[in-house]
Amino acid sequence: MTAQMIDGKAFAANVRAQVAQHVAALKADKGITPGLAVVLVGEDPASQVYVRSKGKQTVEVGMNSYEHRLPADTDAATLMQLIADLNADAAVHGILVQLPLPKHLDEDAVINAIDPAKDVDGFHISNVGLLGTGQKSMVPCTPLGCLMMLRDHLGDLSGMNAVVIGRSNIVGKPMAQLLLNDSCTVTIAHSRTKDLPEVVRRADIVVAAVGRPQMVPGDWIKPGATVIDVGINRIEAEDGKTRLVGDCDTDSCAAVAGAITPVPGGVGPMTIACLLANTLTACCRANGLEAPEGLTA
Ligand code: NDP
Question: What is the pTM of this model?
Answer without folding.
Answer: 0.97
